[in-house]
Amino acid sequence: MASSTQLKSDAIMEQMKLHLSTDAGKQLTKKIGLVYQINIAPKKLGFNDKSYVVDLKKGEVKEGTYEDGKPDATFSFTDDDFVKVSTGKMNPQIAFMRGKMKIKGSISAAQKFTPDIFPKPSKM
């Protein structure tokens, strides 16, 4: 099952949960006010995806699919490509044009999905 697969993205989502509880995270929630569902596949899109909801209306991140209607936009990535986009190593528009990211839903909502919504990775 997908839930037993450990993804590099899991750590980013954990950081995101903490980030949204900070003042910077609360500002982000006010500014964006959208709900994103992110489907992350270990290797190949559409296979063993793990879903997360990044709710920038309520300021929370949850594992699973969005259950309060439809998310404003849904993104699908492989684990490696999600890590690259969320850490700013790959531009989301370039990822989309190269087929590294699939989008469903509102394009205007999708355009607000930038690496800025993710916490900056701490230096190890």
Explain how this protein is built.
The structure is a single chain. The chain has five helices and five strands. With 124 residues, the chain is of the alpha+beta class. It has one domain (3-112): Nonspecific Lipid-transfer Protein, Chain A. It has a five-stranded mixed β-sheet with strand order 3-2-1-4-5. The longest helix is centred in the first third of the chain and has 13 residues, at 8-20. It is globular. The termini are far apart. Residues 19-114 form the SCP2 domain. This is Sterol carrier protein 2. InterPro entries: SCP2_sterol-bd_dom, SCP2_sterol-bd_dom_sf.
Q: Over all CA atoms, what is the radius of gyration?
A: 13 Å
CATH topology: Nonspecific Lipid-transfer Protein, Chain A
Q: According to CATH, what is the class?
A: Alpha Beta
How many strands, what sense, and barrel or not for the largest sheet? Answer: 5 strands, mixed
Q: Mean of residue pLDDT?
A: 90
Architecture per CATH nomenclature, i.e. the level-2 architecture: 2-Layer Sandwich
The proportion of residues forming helix, as a percent range, comes to 25-40%
Cross-sheet strand order for the largest sheet: 3-2-1-4-5
Assembly type: single chain
What is the number of beta strands? Answer: 5
Shape: globular
Helix-strand pattern: HHEEEEHHEH
The computed structural class is alpha+beta
List low-confidence stretches.
none
